[in-house]
Amino acid sequence: SQTIHQWPATLVQPVGSPLSLECTVEGTSNPNLYWYRQAAGRGLQLLFYSVGIGQISSEVPQNLSASRPQDRQFILSSKKLLLSDSGFYLCAWSEDGINEQYFGPGTRLTVT
Amino acid sequence: KQEVTQIPAALSVPEGENLVLNCSFTDSAIYNLQWFRQDPGKGLTSLLLIQSSQREQTSGRLNASLDKSSGRSTLYIAASQPGDSATYLCAVRGYNTDKLIFGTGTRLQVFP
Fold it and tell me: Tens of pLDDT along B76-103?
């Protein structure tokens, strides 16, 4: 069966510090991968998605970037965090990009 | 631009009641619709996926229906239990896109 992992589970970072969140998927190959953010009082927003190694699509302009160095690894990064980057970050995967998406446990990021 | 609305925003019911959660979307040209459950501080759990050609899907005490022409989906929960307490989210996917558009959710509380 497939499993999706995210770490860390929680993170408190000062403004201006760098960020690296990691997501890995087990039990499947060549998945479509997604990063979402869930901010307080707002719905889930798609940030990035990837259909293969090195292929990243950005949905919204922002202070964040994503990379996919390996087939089942997806990384969300920032060089300098802003207060507005606080939120709950969720990674998801899909077999084919058109059917079900499955979500990880999330990372709670607080920028102080 | 697709917009997804969920009504009510919050619902509190006694155990044993049958419930209906509503999801409306403005653009009927959807490929599929997915219902999720989110427990506080956790990731999303996929409940049901309805393809645009389907009218309903069932899983245990859950039944989701889709009326694409009217831009509506309902999630029916039979014989509710305290363990059903969570936030329920619906999301739609258009054609030729990976992107899910989420509603803001219905927070359900089932009390004993």
Answer: 999 999 999 999 999 999 988 888 999 9
Q: How many CB atoms lie within 10 A of CB B3?
A: 12
Closest by alpha carbon to A34, among A57, A60, A53? A57
C-alpha span between A21 and B58 (Å, rounded) = 36
CB-CB neighbors (< 8 A) of B99 in chain A: 46, 49, 59
Q: Looking at CA atoms only, how far is residue A103 from chain B in angstroms? A: 6
Return the residue in A32, A103, A109 with the most chain B beta carbons within 10 A, the one to mutate for interface testing: A103
Instruction: Pick the closest to residue B13 from B80, B62, B104 (CA basis).
Output: B80
Q: What is the pLDDT of residue A41?
A: 73
Q: Measure in Å the smallest separation between the Cα of A6 and chain B Cα atoms.
A: 10
Residues of chain A with pLDDT under 50: none
What are the backbone angles phi and psi of residue B55, rounded to the nearest 5°? -100, -30
Supply B91's token pair.
């999301």
Q: Which amino acid is at A9?
A: A
Q: Which amino acid is at A41?
A: G
